[in-house]
UniProtKB/TrEMBL annotation:
This is Thymidylate synthase. Homodimer. It comes from Neobacillus thermocopriae. GO terms for biological process: dTMP biosynthetic process; dTTP biosynthetic process; methylation. The gene is thyA. GO terms for cellular component: cytosol.
Length: 320
């Protein structure tokens, strides 16, 4: 029987073999395909990749951040999670309030110039420390915008006011499990057209499905950074499915990941090849605190991964 991780590894190989070379928003360039689907049976282990280390605690803190409805990176920084730093930092260094060294095109320059990389890291560290220590600065510069995932999940803005989509979908699963309307939508085009998102959501909607006492989830992701982003997305939505199944008294079924533009950045190709050269190891298992009954009450210590023994980390630059 093929290891479940090949659902992801086959995607990597497919894009290397068939991807279209394209320009992109970041100026990095990608190999891209349009339309791809992966399926993970959540009863065959928790889909946290083993061919490279995926930092599970970062996955957990990010998901709890979304569930809280938070859009400010202060919560993430309090949990030593820096995966969203670059976007508010970019907004800050492009503002008139910033008076430090020139940070133009910092993502690319930091990969090509070691001296600049040191300056960039120092400036970003100062920025993050101010977010943690200065309430007013955090309020002004720590947000990734009202169109971010947490806001869309918990307070989606429409013509009739605000909707807590996540809370509503959980109640629907409990009261009407056979409904075909168990959706949460993160794509609010009206907000994007008015510039309210530093990065419009890549995971645009997800839908739940109940059958035979099991909860499954399908994510549609308009844009997927295959090497850095997609491994997080797989484990994050698998975890969300487990949390909601736990609250609703269901077992878990499948996580189905449907991608629109699935791409490998050109400066990630060697890293992907390294990952493909490795053999997958046994998947870990997830342990949730049985005393916590609601998705909204989980904390970091209530969520544990057991038996995770991956290959080493493979580092790669993020495209901003």
């Amino acid at each position: 029987m093929q290891h479940p991780e090949y659902a992801y590894l086959d995607l990597c190989q497919y894009v290397l073999d068939n991807g279209n070379k394209k320009d992109d928003r970041t100026g990095t360039g990608v190999l891209s395909v349009f339309g791809y689907q992966m399926r993970f049976d959540l009863n065959k282990g928790f889909p946290l990749l083993t061919t490279k280390r995926v930092p599970f605690r970062l996955v957990v803190s990010e998901l709890l951040w979304f569930i809280k409805g938070d859009t400010n990176i202060r919560f993430l920084l309090q949990h030593n999670n820096h995966i969203w730093d670059e976007w508010p930092f970019k907004k800050y260094v492009e503002s008139e309030e910033y008076n430090g060294p020139d940070m133009t095109n910092f993502a690319h320059r930091s990969q090509q110039d070691e001296e600049f990389a040191k300056v960039y890291q120092e400036e970003k560290e100062k920025f993050c420390n101010r977010i943690l220590e200065d309430d007013e600065f955090a309020k002004k510069w720590g947000s990734i915008g009202p169109a971010a995932y947490g806001a869309q999940w918990r307070s989606f803005q429409g013509p009739y006011g605000s909707t807590d989509q996540l809370k509503e979908v959980i109640e629907q699963i409990k009261s009407n499990p056979d409904s075909r309307r168990h959706l949460v939508v993160s794509w609010n085009a009206n907000q994007f057209s008015h510039g309210e998102a530093l990065l419009p959501p890549c995971h645009t909607l997800f839908q739940f499905y109940v059958a035979d006492g099991k909860l499954s989830c399908q994510l549609y992701q308009r844009s997927g950074d295959i090497f850095l982003g997609v491994p997080f997305n797989i484990s994050s939505y698998a975890l969300l499915t487990h949390l909601i199944a736990h609250e609703c008294g269901l077992q878990v079924g499948e996580f189905i990941h449907s991608l629109g533009d699935a791409h490998i950045y050109l400066n990630h190709i060697e890293q992907v090849k390294t990952q493909l050269s490795r053999e997958p190891k046994p998947l870990p298992t997830l342990k949730l605190n049985p005393e916590v009954k609601s998705v909204f009450d989980f904390n970091m210590d209530d969520i544990q991964i057991i038996g995770y023994d991956p290959h080493p980390t493979i580092k790669a630059p993020i495209a901003v």
